[in-house]
Amino acid sequence: MTFLEQAKYKYQTANVLEKLIAINVIVFVLMYVFQAIAFLFNFQENFILDWLVFSKDPEDLLFKPWSIITYAFLHGGFWHLLGNMLLLYYSGIYFITYFTQKKLLNFYFLGAIVGALVYMLSYNFFPAFAGTGRSYLLGASAGVMAILVGIATRVPNLGIRLLLIGTIKLWYIAAFFVVLDIIRIPTGNAGGFLAHLGGAFLGYFYVKQLDKGKDIGKWW
Questions:
Q1: Is the distance from CB of 20 to CB of 85 less than 8 angstroms?
Q2: What is the CA radius of gyration of the chain?
Q3: Which domains does the chain have, with CATH numbers?
Q4: Most buried residue, 81, 116, 182, 187, by most Cβ within 10 Å?
Q5: What pTM was estimated for this model as a whole?
Q6: Is residue 201 within 8 Å of residue 145, measured between CB atoms?
């Protein structure tokens, strides 16, 4: 069995969480390959990236409607990717224990959509962003936060054992990331942190609606 055949087999037998992580990693590598090709042929290096990231400008969404999804598979660097994928993996493991794998996709994509809309609305509403030049959003964080907060809302008192810390409740971990995003808003990348909070809100709201017997992601 060749390497490609092995990779194809592993992907086909992987669960949704593993596939989601694999897609993020593959896209990350491909974007650097495209940038290298663009450099060698003297093309604009960010040509493809510009068509996939989510812009703060509403008119851009009209011309690039797919960007409200594609931005959630792009990352600004290795550490950005690694941090998101680690959090996605560990929160996702617990998530698919209490929810279906289909729900994992619902939370990821809806979290990304809500996060993007919060980002756009924030840039066009809050005075702090007045006069801001070109700005765009990328990264899986909003979708990942939706999954983390979603599972923390479903089983808040689930004990999670952390190295050097011991066992703490899951909702403490989720609350830590939410508070961290809030306090970092004035320090830079405010739009990104607001997008994270949008994803977190979606995760909480989705679970509360499920508790009422309503699946807001059923149409997805």
A1: no
A2: 18
A3: 3-211 (1.20.1540.10)
A4: 116
A5: 0.92
A6: no
